[in-house]
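Recap slide: Diaminopimelate epimerase, sequence and predicted structure.
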Amino acid sequence: MTALSFVKGQGTGNDFVLFSDPEGETPLDPEQIAFLCDRRRGVGADGVIRAVRSRALPEGEAALAEEPEAEWFMDYWNADGTPAEMCGNGIRVYAHYLIAEGLAAPARTDTLPIGTRAGVKDVLAGVSGYTVDLGRWRLDGERLVAADGLDVPRPGLGIDLGNPHVVVALADPDELEALRLHRPPSLEPIAEHGANVEFVVPEDPLIRDGVARIRMRVHERGVGETRSCGTGTAAAALAFRHWGGAGMPDSWSIDVPGGRLGVRMFPTEEGEHVSLSGPAELVYSGSIALP
Ligand SMILES: N[C@@H](CCC[C@H](N)C(=O)O)C(=O)O
């Protein structure tokens, strides 16, 4: 049995087991990841993040080709042992971890570029958390979404942020509360690689002081219902703005069961980007024997 030293971290209640493997010598298998994330037998988390140098992984080589300064790669795994392209809460917690462990310099003035399976993402430290530029996004068709607690299937808008999302607007907060997300919502047509499904309602009034405000619950691919999904909040804001048309602002505040996240859309030379801002915390460290 090998012992693994880890740090437990969280951002708006989306929680992660983080560990360092700079030279890529300790890849975990899906069973070991599922064990670490098991809330009864293991540490308990929504995902595992391995801190590995980009040059030590084939996917990292692609990140370095995009941005030679992207020394660190976020090797992200869902609780069921499947890899994911991106994690918006995870990357803030990961940046915090790299800085706290002395593996990266504090990113207060210069951004910290981090390699992910969805490309290099720039993270900036702020006073009360971190902001990550999630980059480009695209609409990804429509699907009918059925879930326990919903009377009839509802239309959902696909949004690709490197990882796949389907966003469903509900009528009111009562409908949001009545949802039971103990199993994955079903999608028609099926999403080939699965999808994170976000259910959203507007706050009343929707726009206050130039910021649009919505509330969200999420069922994450490879995990289940979580307290928060960062890329999911960006997808929810983008979908709502798409539905609302002209007059919708570019600044959004999204309440999730685990807290509040900020999303902003802004122009760049290559087209519109979307950013995510929110807290990141390291909770405790420990060591666990891996099966
Ligand atoms: N919680 C994350 C998303 C994690 C990956 C997701 N479950 C997937 O499979 O795409 C976030 O904060 O973005």
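The helical segments are 30-37, 58-66, 88-100, 173-178, 230-244.
DSSP finds five helices and 18 strands in the chain.
(End of recap.)
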